[in-house]
């Protein structure tokens, strides 16, 4: 047997080993770069509710770009994805296996949280209020008698002027705009007196773990300076604290937003949804 024949098997074996090593390196680099991209550049989320219909439907999966809001703050009217500052147990149940896997890479403080997508309507220092929309002015005297109105008959004013970016959206006067103690009641139903939200508070205590966020964050703010109640007109204005934002959904009748859970810290902002990747029939950029 020739010397060449004797060394051939070893040469073949080393070639296989080299191939395996090369593939292993390629896989390792892919994981490393994929993780970096996931952590710092892009995110995905599945939308569980109807809060942004018709722009975004329940079940839509969004591709979220994270770089822009690392360079600048979001602007009025922007559709923003953010980590919910409390645990939403019902939304967690809606996550698919893919979402749960991707969220393994989320920051430690947001483990067990979900992402919401809403429209930004208030920045730090802004004063927000809901006024009867022009087309309902003939009902204004009657509507002012009632602090709560679930009908979408109100226009958002920011610093005394209609916000142009949401001028065509009509909101219902609910949550903190209807009850100055709403945030307290949602966290501690036993600490509020009469409220037409009593049943709501009890029901949602089984759906979300809100008390921790209220006690650790909102209650540490001088809320009396940020929830401005006029005892004569019963009107409520909301001032946004430094470092926080206020978000509301376009589909006001089906949106659990800042009217109900309060201010969202800047650190919770994830990014801007740039592409709908599912359902395939709706694939493409969001139509804002």
List its salient traits.
288 residues; 2 domains; 7-stranded antiparallel sheet; LexA/Signal_pep-like_sf; alpha+beta
Task: Please render the helix and strand layout as text.
Layout: H1 3-40, E1 42-46, E2 61-65, H2 68-71, E3 79-83, E4 87-88, H3 89-94, H4 97-102, E5 115-122, E6 127-132, H5 140-143, E7 149-158, E8 161-162, E9 171-173, H6 182-187, H7 198-204, E10 208-209, H8 211-216, H9 223-226, E11 227-229, E12 236-239, E13 244-248, H10 258-261, E14 264-265, E15 269-278
Antiparallel strand pairs: 1-2, 2-15, 3-5, 3-15, 4-10, 5-13, 6-7, 6-12, 7-8, 7-9, 11-12, 13-14
Transmembrane segments: 26-42
Membrane topology: Single-pass type II membrane protein
Family: Belongs to the peptidase S26 family.
In short:
This protein has helices at residues 3-40, 68-71, 89-94, 97-102, 140-143, 182-187, 198-204, 211-216, 223-226, 258-261; strands spanning 42-46, 61-65, 79-83, 87-88, 115-122, 127-132, 149-158, 161-162, 171-173, 208-209, 227-229, 236-239, 244-248, 264-265, 269-278. With 288 residues, it is α+β, with helices and mostly antiparallel strands.
Task: Describe the model.
Its EC number is 3.4.21.89. The active site is at residues 51, 118. Belongs to the peptidase S26 family. This is Signal peptidase I. The chain has 288 residues and is α+β, with helices and mostly antiparallel strands. It has 2 domains: 1-40; 41-282, Umud Fragment, subunit A (Ribbon), CATH 2.10.109.10. Helix content is 30%, strand content 25%. The chain has helices spanning 3-40, 68-71, 89-94, 97-102, 140-143, 182-187, 198-204, 211-216, 223-226, 258-261; strands spanning 42-46, 61-65, 79-83, 87-88, 115-122, 127-132, 149-158, 161-162, 171-173, 208-209, 227-229, 236-239, 244-248, 264-265, 269-278. It has a 7-stranded antiparallel β-sheet with strand order 1-2-15-3-5-13-14. Strands 6, 7, 8, 9, 11 and 12 form a 6-stranded antiparallel β-sheet that branches. β11 and β12 form a beta hairpin. The radius of gyration is 25 Å and the shape is globular. The mean pLDDT is 87.
